[in-house]
């Protein structure tokens, strides 16, 4: 029986393995075990909802993936906006609620101070 010998360099082997693998990202926060999640890295989302009395509330989510603590982000936004801000945790989902329309201010804070790339901050309107 004859076999054909195939040789490949180390770089070529690694490129083939990487091409066969799917996308994933690792969330590693201080004091916690790293979590590997399949798929793309989700962008930080901003939603503005109207509450009773025609008051607007900005809801910010998906920031924990980037290692940002919710309480710290809420406190910085509260000082920056001079308005009320709170942090909520519902299961694995963390959100920050800010009184008023804080989309532009929050996006600017995340890009400039936390150095989050602009493509991961959903464009505020």
3D architecture notes:
The protein is of the alpha+beta class and 125 residues long. Helix content is 26%, strand content 28%. The strands form two sheets. It has a four-stranded antiparallel β-sheet with strand order 3-4-6-5, with helices on one face. Strand 1 and strand 2 form a beta hairpin. It starts with 9 loop residues before the first helix and ends in a 13-residue tail after the last helix. The model has no long low-confidence stretch (mean pLDDT 85).
Q: For the CA atoms, what is the radius of gyration? A: 21 Å
Q: Based on DSSP secondary structure assignment, what is the total number of beta strands?
A: 6
Beta-strand share of residues? 25-35%
What would you call the structural class? alpha+beta
Tertiary shape: elongated
What level of helicity do the residues show? 25-40%
- pLDDT < 50 stretches: none
Average predicted local confidence, pLDDT: 85
The DSSP helix count reads 3
Main beta sheet strand tally, sense and closure? 4 strands, antiparallel
First CA to last CA: what distance?
69 Å
- Written as H for each helix and E for each strand, in order along the chain, the element string is HEEEEHEEH
Largest beta sheet: strand ordering: 3-4-6-5
What is the structure about, briefly put?
By secondary structure, the chain is α+β, with helices and mostly antiparallel strands. The protein is built from three helices and six strands; from the N terminus they run αββββαββα.
């Amino acid at each position: 029986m004859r076999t054909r010998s195939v040789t490949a360099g180390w770089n070529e082997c690694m490129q083939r393995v990487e091409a066969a693998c799917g996308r994933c990202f690792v969330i590693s926060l201080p004091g916690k075990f790293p979590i590997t999640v399949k798929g793309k890295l989700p962008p930080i989302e901003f939603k503005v909802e109207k509450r009773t009395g025609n008051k607007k509330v900005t809801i910010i989510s998906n920031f924990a993936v980037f290692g940002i603590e919710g309480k710290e982000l809420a406190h910085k936004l509260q000082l920056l906006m001079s308005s009320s801000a709170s942090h909520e945790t519902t299961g694995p989902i963390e959100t920050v609620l800010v009184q008023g329309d804080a989309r532009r201010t929050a996006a600017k804070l995340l890009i400039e101070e936390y150095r989050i790339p602009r493509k991961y901050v959903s464009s505020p309107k």
